[in-house]
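User: Could you write out the 3D structure of this protein bound to pyridoxal-5'-phosphate? I've included everything you need below.
Assistant: Certainly. Input first, then the structure.
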Amino acid sequence: MSSATPTSTFWRPWTPVAAATDPVVMVEGRGTRVRDADGTWYVDGISGMMNASCGHGHPRLLQAAARQLEQLAHFELSAFTHPAAEALAAGLARLLPGDLGETFLVNSGSEATEAAMRIVSQYWRNMGAPRDRVITFQAGYHGSTALAQKLSGLPSNASDWAAPFPIDHVRLPVPPRELRSAGGAEALAGAFATALAAGPPAAAVMVEPLLNVGGGIVLPAGFLTELRRLCDQYGTLLVLDEVFCGFGRTGRMFGFDHDGVTPDLVTMSKGISGGYVPLAAVSTTPEIKGSFRHEPMIGGLRYGHTTSGHAVACAVAAETLEVIADEGLVGNAKVRGSELLSGLRELEDHPSVIDVRGLGLVATIEVDEQETASAVVAEARRGGLIIRSQGTAIMVMPPLITTAADVAETVQLMAQALARVTSSADHRLHAVHQ
Ligand SMILES: Cc1ncc(COP(=O)(O)O)c(C=O)c1O
């Protein structure tokens, strides 16, 4: 394994600075595989950063980036526009349900959350009826900028500063595995009904259709339908975070398609550009966008970044939407996802395994302890499979181009990794030698 030199000046995100870890140096990606600096190839079970949905080195995406770079890298978007942003917004309008045809572009999922919250807050002011309370999942994740961080109740997102508006975090009423049993959807919707009733009228409810960072938690069918109904009842805006689920990850184009609901705002990133370039979007309705029409000259939405709607990013994203359609990647995610889930369910008898769940190409094995999860991730990497853990959840999220052979190999490598981590004594030993 290659190591970064201990004197590396690169400060890696989300990593303890004192950690005695030698990160693997990744140098190349091809299709569903990545290669490190020592020449070892791995099965990429995390799609780069959960975003390389079309796989690595896709020629159409490389060409789209090169064409746009040659033509025009980027240009100011408040006084001007460019065809790449227009094409992407039009492409999204065709994909999204209902009248979610108005799109605002930014660079990251966190910025999409920030933009969505600013739109929500200003919308209520525009309507002459200010509301500011927002309801989210305690185990939800919407990003790591200051505002996005406060929307989550996960310990990893804790910060000392105050939120700019009241946020109510709804806890799961039952453990993740019990959400699938009868009554799961009602119990979950009931928790949101209580939160909606418990305070002043909420400006918005913001949730992910499947909780990613919270532990790969699949929400019960029917929950979003009921949440939509509750939001309508309270006149509250429903914001769905499709940053992780969007563009086929769960076996449907959007996570909310499983329930057939249409939110008032949707945030998107990751798969939107196949992970090749940073890009994110918020789409909403003409009614919400139109409420800004009386804003003074500087206004409209007082938010944006130098690289918001960067032309190269937009060109790659517009092409990504075409690749997803041309290669049938959403359907492939559904088929390969059920193969992956049934393969991993064979591992349910392992003494450390508490639950195996999944939807499309998001598969989660929940184990008894966080150390067990970390040890399995480390063992899998030694065997040639890159996966990821979030707390006690081990997550497998391969590119949507994954083949049946890739799935079989992934399941086999997972089984081997799990078999090598048999007891807590074992995984403590692994952690020491990692
Ligand atoms: C559901 C969800 N929302 C928002 C984000 C934040 O996106 P970013 O890391 O691009 O800021 C993430 C990132 O993992 C996510 O999974």
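Residues 221 and 259 are 7 Å apart (CA to CA).
User: Perfect, thank you.
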